[in-house]
């Protein structure tokens, strides 16, 4: 990323000081991601906001060649054939994805962020890491829900978020059998707890 900076010096009564100091970086106003139709962050651009799913890029359809992604955010991009890729870092050249992006979805802050907790009734479970809704399914769990068998979601859960004041109990087996664990708050990756793709039944409770 290039930077442009300027120092404005002033002399007043023998005092030399720095009046203004400003560092210009393209896109320090970006909330999630910005795509440009030229290499090196030049030309026309389009923004993808936090948790925004852009199914139509308008004039930028299949034109993006470079992208800036805010720290902590990820941009999931899709081409016309439905292929997708998750981009985690700014890139002055999209290589294999140059002029291929037809849709995009941007997310920040994972399971710990404000967005993950919004409209939460008891818990939300995700197929992918970091409570990502850009790809994979998500499952809403209400207070007092007891799910003895997750059906197609069985052994597929990788991250979750539980509403403050509530707790989620999960079991390795159907019908609340086998190993059990209680989760609260946001968990970006169930791998760290050894529960990735292992949940088969669950209960959610709020105080
Ligand atoms: C879970 O309980 C249901 C209903 O009692 C039963 O039909 C099913 O076989 C049980 N599943 C397992 C894996 O024990």
UniProtKB/TrEMBL annotation:
Superkingdom to which the source organism belongs: Eukaryota
GO BP terms: exocytosis
UniProt-listed Pfam families: Syncollin
Keywords linked to the UniProt accession: Signal
Record GO cellular component, one term: secretory granule membrane
Cleaved signal peptide residues: 1-17
Keyword Cytoplasm: no
Official protein name in the record: Syncollin
Originating species: Folsomia candida (Springtail)
């Amino acid at each position: 990323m290039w930077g442009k900076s300027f120092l404005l010096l002033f002399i007043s009564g023998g005092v030399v000081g720095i009046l203004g100091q400003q560092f210009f970086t393209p896109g320090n106003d970006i909330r999630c991601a910005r795509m440009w139709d030229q290499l090196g962050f030049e030309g026309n651009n389009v923004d993808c906001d936090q948790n925004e799913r852009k199914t139509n890029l308008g004039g930028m359809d299949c034109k993006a060649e470079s992208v800036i992604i805010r720290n902590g955010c990820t941009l999931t991009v899709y081409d016309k054939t439905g292929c997708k890729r998750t981009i985690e870092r700014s890139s002055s050249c999209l290589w294999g994805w140059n002029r291929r992006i037809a849709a995009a979805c941007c997310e920040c802050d994972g399971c710990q962020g404000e967005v993950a907790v919004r409209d939460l009734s008891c818990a939300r479970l995700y197929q992918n890491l970091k409570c990502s809704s850009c790809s994979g399914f998500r499952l809403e769990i209400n207070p007092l829900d007891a799910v003895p068998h997750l059906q197609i979601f069985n052994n597929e859960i990788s991250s979750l978020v539980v509403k403050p004041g509530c707790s989620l109990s999960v079991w390795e087996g159907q019908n609340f059998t086998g190993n059990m664990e209680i989760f609260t708050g946001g968990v970006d990756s169930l791998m760290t707890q050894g529960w990735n793709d292992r949940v088969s039944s669950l209960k959610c409770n709020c105080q």
